[in-house]
Amino acid sequence: MASTNSQEVFIIGQTSEGRRFRPSDWAERLAGVMSQFRPDGDPPRLGGHLRYSPWCTPNNVAGVKCVIVHRDMQEAEPQAWDFVMNFARDNDLQIVDACLMPDAKPLS
């Protein structure tokens, strides 16, 4: 992957040929496996073992499941980063350098 200024990488649940990746809950499963990898100082919370890592979260973009992986994971947890990126490559999933935009406020 080329160097970029984006803070996140989106792993899109479509193959390079445009087919949807299965099973349908793949994004939640992958993010669940990665939930143990957290930034230092991430405060423990009640039910914290049931939270996704802020570095790897499932999402939905234009009706397609995806996992958003924050680049901070690459430096802090290189093996976890490699695992996620290799998962995407091994399954021929689309990988896009991008960034999350805050929700737009309605025009008044």
From TrEMBL:
Highest taxon of the lineage: Bacteria
Gene3D superfamilies: Uncharacterised protein PF12112 family, DUF3579 (3.30.70.2340)
Alphabetical list of Pfam families matching this protein: DUF3579
Official protein name in the record: DUF3579 domain-containing protein
Source species of the chain: Brachymonas denitrificans DSM 15123
